[in-house]
Every structure is written in C-alpha cells, then in structure tokens.
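Annotators were shown the component list below and the corresponding predicted structure, then asked to write short factual statements about the assembly.
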Amino acid sequence: MKLENTSCDIEDEEQSAFRLPVLKKLLLHRLVADRLASFLVSLSGIFVVLTICAIVFVITAEIIPLFMPPRVTMAESLAVGGENKAKPSSIVAVGVDDYQEVVYIIRAEGLIEFFSLESGEPLESVRIPGTDLLAHPVHVLGSGPEYFIVLDDGSIFSAVISFTLDYSGGSRAIVPQVDFGQPAKFPDAAGVRPSIAAAGKTENGAVYALPVGDNEIFLLRRMEKKSLLGTPKVTVVERRIELALKSPVTKLLLNRTGDLLFAGSAAGELAVINILSEDPQSAITRTNIGDQSVTLLGLLLADQTLIVGNAAGEIRSFFVKRDYTTGGALLIAHHAFREHRAVPKYFARSERNRSFITADESGLVHLHYGTSCETLLSFSAPSGLAALSLAAKADGILALSGDGRLVRWNLENYHPEATLHTLFGKVWYEGRDRPEYVWQSTGATDEFESKLSLVPLIFGTLKGTCYALLFAVPVAVLGALYVSQFMDPALRSYIKPAVELMAALPSVVIGFLAGLWLAPRVENGILGLFLFPLWFCAAVLIALLFWKWLPRKIVRFLPPGSELAFLMLTVAAGVWFSLYSGVLLEEAVFSGDFLGFLREQAGAIYDQRNSIVVGLAMGFAVIPLIFTITEDCLSAVPRNLVAASLALGATKWQTAARVVLPSASPGIFSAVMIGFGRAVGETMIVLMATGNTPILDWSVFNGFRAMSANIAVELPEAPHGGTLYRVLFLTALLLFVLTFVINMISEVVRQRLRKRYQAA
Amino acid sequence: MRYFASKMTIWRSGDPFVWLSGGALALILLLLSGLFVVVTVNGFGAMWPKRTAKLELRSGDIVLGEIVERELIPPSRTSSVEAFRLQVKRGNRDLSGSDFVWLDEAEIERISYPEEAVVIERRQWGNFYGFPARLLWRNDVVAGAGDGSWRKLEKLLAEEQNIVRQIREIERNEAAALGYKQEKLRIEIKELEKRGAQSARLASARLRGKALQREYIELEQRLQAKRQLLSGVLEMRAAGDQLKRIELAEIVRIYQPNAMSWLERLLLCGQRIIEFVFDDPRESNTEGGVFPAIFGTVMMVLMMSITVTPLGVLAAIYLREYAKQGRFVSLVRIAVNNLAGVPSIVFGVFGLGFFVYTLGGSIDELFFEKYLPNPTFGTGGILWASLTLALLTLPTVIVATEEGLAAIPRSLREASYALGATKLETTWRIVIPSLVPSILTGMILAVARAAGEVAPLMITGVVKLAPSLPIDANWPFFHFDRKFMHLGFHIYDVGFQSPNVDAARPMVFATTVLLLLIVLLLNLSAIIFRARLRKVGLSGAL
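Structure shown to annotators:
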C-alpha cells in the first residue's frame, strides 16, 4: 500500500520538478520513501528467516518438557493436632481431594476429620460407626479414596471418601462425604493380627484376609446378589489357608480384583495365592528375596507389577504373571530401585501411570517409575514421616510428618513414561516375556500403558525408503542417462516437462491407486512381478536385435523418437509376458497357490498392502525428482569432455559410462539423497499403501509404520500437551533434522560440482 | 561365424546398455501413462450409465444389477479347472443388506438385458434395481405397468423434485441462518447472566430469543406444509419379486439403462458430472457430489496465495536486490532451498503447535472467552490450514521469483539509476513489471502443490464432512475458524475410512480425476508460462 502511495505522489509532481524548492522537497520525499521501502523489504526478508527458525523452535519447545526432570516443591504445612496434639501417632491415614484443597486424616480413635488446606480450618468430622464405645484403636487398610476399617471385635467394612462440587453458593465449594459399607465379621480366634490384614473388592462383594498366628490366613468372602425385590441376598464364605512359609507373615496385600493375595514374611519369603480358585492351597507360588523381613508390599496401576520393600531398605519390582494352568500367578523379578537408608514402610501409587512413591521412617521419599526402572527423584521430609498419600492426579504428595503436621508437596512429574531409554531402547513391559521395542500408544482402558518406542517407526521409515529407492534409483538414473546422452534433443524438450508433470502428481492420488488398485493386482501377480526384471532385459535385447535387423533405409525414414515408442511397446509386452509367465510358474511349481506355499513353507505372512506395493508407489513418486536432478547434472557435463572422448574413438556408451557418469557422480549422489529425503517424509503413500503395523521385520511381504504416517494418524487424536503429543512432535523433529541434513549435504555437493564445471 | 562376430560387435559397441537405459525411460513413461489411463477409465466409468443385467441362476434365483468385474476364482479352492466369477452390483441395500454380490459363472444359467429394467438413484440406501409396478398419488393408483405410466411418472417426479429442491433451499438458507442466530443469542444470554448485567438488556435478549423461536416455528410449519405436498409413491418389483414402495421425494434420478441410446447415455453422463461437481455428498460421502470439497479446496488455496505471494516476493527481492550478498544471504538461500525438502507433515505439526494451539489458543482467550471451553480458533480450521500451506509453499514462490530477478539484466537497473531513480523507484517501475510473469509462475506452482497436499491438513483442520461452508450469508460472512472439506482428503477418507469401500470406489476415482485435472492444468500452465518466459527473458537480455 505504502509503495503505491509514494509512487503516485512522484507522478503528480513530476511536471513541476523544475522549480528548485519543490525539487528539494521532492528529493526528501523520495528519499524517505526509499528508506521506508528498504526497511519494509528487509523486514520481510528477516521475517522469512525467522519463520524457518520458528519451525525448529516451536517444535523443540513442545519436546523439551518430555525431558524435564520431575520436581517437587513444598506447598503447605498444616498443624492438625487439635486437642490430640500430643498424640500425632494416633493418625493412621491421610488423604487429599482431586483439587488438593481439602485434606482428611483418619484417627485410630475412630474419627475421620476434614480440613481446608488453605485456611487450616476444620471442616467436618465423621465418626466411624461402632467405634464410640471402644477404647481400642481401629486399623485402616488400603489406600484412598477407598479404605477398609477393621475393628478389634473382628468386624470389617469399607469406608469410601468422596468429594462433590457444590456451586450453589455462587462459588465452588468442595463437600466431603464418607460412605460406609455393610460390615462382615470375623469369628473370634486367638492370635489374630488385624493390623496387617488385607482387603479387596470382587465383582459382587468383598474379600478380606486376616492373618491368624504366624502362617495361617483367615479368608472371608462376602457376596451380594441383587434380587428383583431390592433386598440383596448376602452370602459369606469362610476359609482358612495355610501359607506354609518358614517365618511369620509380616505383610499382606490383595489386588483390586480381590483374587490374588500376596504375602511377605520375616525371612524374606514371598507367596502368591489365588484365593478365589477351587483349591487355593495347591496354587501357592513361593519365592525368596534375600533374608530380610518384608516391610512393604504394593501394586502398580493395573495390578501387574508388585513392589516389595524389605528391612535392608531394598525396593524391588516383580511382574505378576498369571499362570492359567494352576490358576495362580508367578512372580518374575524385574528391577531393583534405589535403596532406602531406613526401613521403607510407606507406599503410594499413581492412578495415572506406573509411577509410585516409597518412603521410610526417617522421612526419605523416593519417586520411582515402574516401566523405565528409574528412580526419578528423592527428597526428605524434615522431621520424619508417619503417613503418606498421593493425590488422585499424581500431582501432589500429602504426608504426615513426625511432629504431627500435615505437609503437602506439589509434584511435577508429567512425562515419566518417555525417557531416552524408553524411546530408543528395549523396554520390558508388563505382561511381556522379554524387553522389546514396541509402539502401541493407545489402549482400550485407562490402565493401559503407552508403549512409545520410536525404533519400530524409524525402522519402518527406513524400510519403506530403502525399497522405494531400490526401485527408483536404477530406473531414474538410467532414464536420465538416456535422455541426456542418447536422445534426440528435439524430443528431450517434451520428455522433461512430462516427467516434471509426474513430480506434480499429488501423493494422495498415488497412494490411493497403490492401496486400492495396485495392491490386489500385485497380490495376484506377485511371481510375475519378480520375473519382470528378466523379461524387461529380454524385451530390450529383442527390441535391439529387431532394430539392428531392420534395413537402414527404413530406419532412416522413421521420425526421431520412434526407437523410444518401439521400446515402450516391447516393454509393455514384457510386462504382459512376465505376468503370464508368473501364472504359468505358479501353476507348475507352486501348484497354483504361491501365497499358500509362502505361508506354509516359509512361514511368511503376506499382507495385501505390503512393502512391495509401497516400494513401487513411493518409487514412482521419487523417480521424477531423481530423474530431473540427475538429468540436469549429466547435461551440465562440459561438452568438450564428451567430444574429446568420442574423438579418441570411444563409443557413445563408453563415453557415457566412463566419462560422463563418473564426472557427474557427485550430482547423482545428491539426486539420490534428495530422493531419499522425499521418501523419508512421504506421508500419504505410506499411510494408504501399508497396513501401518509397527513391526520390526525386513520381509517384503508385510507392511510397516513410518514416522510420518504415524504422526498423521495419531496427532489428531493426541490430547494437547500429553506425552503422546510431545513424542509425536519429537518424531516430527527427527524427520525435520534428518531431511534438513540430507538436503544440506546434497546441496553442498551440488554447489561444489557446479563450481568445478565452471572452472572447467 | 560372421553372425556371431556381428553379435559381438553389438555387444562391444555398448548398444545393449544404451537400449537398456532407453528401456528404463520407456518404463517411466509407461507407468505414467498407465496411471492416467487407470484413473481416467475408472473415473469416467463411474459416470457412465452401465447396462443392467438380469442373471438367472441355476438355483432359480434371479439377480438384477450391473456386472462390475470378472475375475479368476483363486485356484486353491476349486480344482485346477479355470473358473471365473462375477461381481454384481445389485443395489437394493434395504432389501438384501449389501450392494455387491459375487456369483460363480458356473451357477449362472442365463444373462439377459431386459429393456424394462429400471435403475433408481435414491437419496438413501443407494441404488434400486427393479421393474416398475404401480404409481400411486395420495394412495390412488395413477398408473400401472405400461407405457403411459412412464410419462406420468416423469411429470410427477419433476414436480416433486422441484418441491424437494425448495425445501432444501429453505433448510439450507433460512433454517441455517436462524440456527446461527439462535446460537449467537444463547451465548449472549449466557454471557449476560454470568456478568450479572442489567436486567433490561437480559430481558430484551430473552425477548429476541422468543421472537426467534416463533420465527422458527413458523418456518417449521411452512416446511411441513411443503412436505405434505410430497405424496407420490412408486411401487417397484425387485428381481426377487418383492414389492418395494419408494417415495418419489426419495428419488434422485430414474432411468432405463438398457433402453437408452448412446446419446441419451451421454446426456445422463453429463448430468451426473454436473451433479458430481455442484451437489452435496450423500450417504456418508459415497454418493452425490463433492461441491463442499471443491469449495473448501479453492478457498483454502486462495487464502494461501493471498498470504504467500507478497511474503515470498518481498523475501526474494530482499535476497536479490537489498541484502548484501555474502555469507548470510547464501546461508538463507540454502535454508530456503532446504525448506522445500522438509516433509509436509512437519509443517502440519508446526501448524498445529504454533497456529492452532499457541496463536489460536491466545486469540480464544482474548476475544472468544465466552465460548470457552469450546475452542473457536483454538482448533483446526481453514485459516490455520491455509497459513500452514503458505509456509509450505513459501520456498516455491521465493525460488521462482528469484529466478525471474536473475533473468532481469543489470543494464536495465543501471539505466534507471543513471536517470536518477532511487532504488525503490527502480524496483517498483522497472523490476517488478518484468517480474510479474515469474511471480505468477511461482504462484501457480504453489497453488498446484497446495491443492494436492493432504498430510498437513489432516492435523490442521480438514474434516470428512463439514456441516457448513466457510462462507455463508450469516454475519460476518467469512468464517475462518470453520473446518472444511478438501478433495485430496476426500479421496483418502472415502477410499480408506469408508465402511462400504466397494460402493465408494467410483466416487473416489471420480474425485481423483477432478483433483488430477486441477493440479495438472495448473502445472501445465506454469510450465508453458516458464518456457515462454525464458525465451522472452533471453531476448530481453540481449
């Protein structure tokens, strides 16, 4: 706009430009306009440079949080002693709501008290039923928000703490609520130890396990059957199980489905029992983990990893592998985490991922991540610990310190599942037999663990690129050689634009044809395809012989380029012959079913959309690029070189192969590199022409999942700021860096070549 | 011996290798032409009305439909005898459950092409193949099977289709506008309530809401009255002798393919092409037209060119005319060249991270807070998609413009300077006028690239079915935040994500032809442009 205005001004004043003062004014005017314009132009130039930088910057900015170490900062500290200030040890459990605004404590006297974290004001106090007359303490099992309360008279019931949001007062208020379940009652027995009992929910009720004496477990299973009339029918099954461990049981744990009972003993033994099976006694698995007493048992999200801590301060993880023949489960040693200096007693798990915290009495807290086998951070509570819990979103830790204060820490641990090791190394995931490279980002349930190994994706990209180049490079380079060295120049000016047009074909069109049209045809004619190179050479030779056999007189009258037309005909015939011979070969050797033979004899599975199809399609997309650049480089070889070679008596082919090709080889190399770069980033073709299965297999008969296609498929569904989102950005950065470096190399090579030719 | 010797000379002359390289070129050209043949044949085949075959099976069943394909039965199942099977599109999805059926040739007794067989293209349930039985209007029989009924049917059908068109017009324009106004008002009322504004404004807003509601009811009544007029029913007899009542309002087109002459077929083909280009899609995009996709593609490309052309041209002028030629500029030039080689999906990722979430998120917080948590600009849309593609095509424009700048001889500029012109004047009066063709070339190439690009759009705002176009009659007319449809994505989506791929295939091929036509015409014009430019540029330099 500015430019236009100034130019108009000048035009108006041109006629009067002879008067001097006006001229001066005009000069100033023009000078200012000129400066302004150069400023604007420079600005836009710099804008472009900035944009290129911005691409790297924005993508990197989204990736950095992946590798930020987790942080913990103390947020609040609150004295909750009240009238019982002198007895902090009477608090047996602590917890916090989802928003981390309301905390609660459960006292051994049978009180559940709620406090506002901000003001420290007590909000509400709930008495546990059946406790008011008892002087004995209550025992609390499980972790928030669902606890089980055991009273000394043997009655046991659940206590669920929930919070509802109330907007009625104009602003948001959090209203705590406690729901107590129907009690069950253990029969009186000598030597019961309710403090280490375990409880769990089953589909239709609850299971409780109470140790009696050293090694015996009393099981109580309460089942509710909903009847039509509304009053549920309750059945209670009692059972005693002998654990047969060498030392007394020190810890018991039930999983969330209430079927597996884990027990640890004073001599470091571990036992797993399926308590719902017909004969639990026969399905006990026992292992030994040293001779120290087991002081901590915990299960990670999805209950497939058992965390064990012992008196020596060791923290170890075991995979729980179901044994479907016995109904029990096996424990497979996985990893030993960072040790505690004192006896680890407290455990809390995240309900989001596989992270968990362990703490000992001295106040040392470790944050670990189960899958990556890493201890992410450690910190110490200043005056010891007496209880511990993790907020629902795993973004806060609440603890009761040794001096009776509630302390809350903010926890920033956003992407523990993505580390350099899990992204690029072999990882042993729950439920698998060995460490593997796996990409499986989303699952059906909340408990699903994302498996984010980039190795299968990088492999897929390279696999697709390799097969594409295998097809494209020879065809494109030979074709370019023919066009630049042997072809009639008049015809060349038509062939080059035609191939350029081929470069403009949208990749979605090529991908669609490859996936829906080509793939079924390749499946039927796979043998013919393998035979094609042979038939191709044969067709070319036959064409040559025929051409030589033709009398010179006729050849002279044919228009230039008729050789090429003739070649196209013979090559088309070659295609037909190879398909036909493929069918014949299939009939003769493989009894008409090559794919069946492949499946049975070689164990190779044939996917319809496989690497052959991608190789052909992506090769087709890359050919024009390689062709054009190669042709440019070959044509740029100085003519005097060629003339010198021909003058020395070399044939046309000898000149082309020994003079032109070698001197243009850097250019051909750069053409191949650029083709490589294009194939690496190609998205739609690999998306449509493969099955997109992330596997590590070089077989041409199955597909792969490339980085680019993976981004296109998963990024629209990935929540903003989540781990998957950031990992996909990381793959984008990898693609960017890879192609940028490749292009840079080929660019430098080409520039050097150009200089050399100029010198020549 | 002499023959052998001559063979040896052929070998030594290297001719076999020359011909081998020629064979490689022939293969490239064959592949290219093969692609065009496949796409064109299938694409136009989708529009061409095929004959309807009546297949009488040995079991006594009769199948009526189009024979789509004939293929060899995989030999493992039968013995080594060569046997073929036919894929027949029998339509009548509401009766038989699926559109297509495979029939072994051995089971077929006889194939005939009865003249009276009728194909009905319906708005729902796909095609119907059968024989007309009766025509009813308000439950009265107007005509039975026979020649006279056909003319009456045509007349009645034309009337009803006219009404249907009116109803659709009302729904698309007035009802949509009303809905839009109501939604705006709802947000306004919510906002007022939240702010606790004066009750007068709230009351007036509510009053307006009531008025809109009344208008809506009125419109509904008008539509209802129109719908009452639609009461023609055609009773059809399917191949299996079942009777099927088809409301005339449900019929898009009805014809007797076996009784048609070539000219009539050509006419029908033309009608279908017009429908394909100008109509909305039906049946989850597998039938009807692709107008919204064409519209989305064109609008996105236009917005992209408006952004990319000035930026690219200015940048190129900076690099050639203004910047000091040195290490920095050559570095920038290499970076720009490399930018052209960066995968398009990476641009998409950048677009999502920067435009959609960062820029769009901030715009939402600043200007569209009342709509939150529903994002307005904080989600993919046509604006962000076209900006992303503008970035993607920036190198194309810069390179083309630079090429043009290099072709303008120095002497021209020097002459201008000698006459006392400033740099701006030289650039504006001398350089840019001779640069216009290069800029146009760059723009055309950019547009061609953008029209065919799909991957970055998938994450920045393209959808399979957009409820409304990005331009409509509602204030402010341009809705840059809206999601849009795109021809390339349409191909991917209908071809690979559609539940009924067999039925969708003709549509995909037709869309492919359209996209190819657009892209190739653009490229061809750019190539021709450039070729002429080079000639002109050369003569100018002399």
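Statements collected:
1. The longest helix of chain A spans residues 20-63.
2. Residues 1-17 of chain A have pLDDT under 50 and may be disordered.
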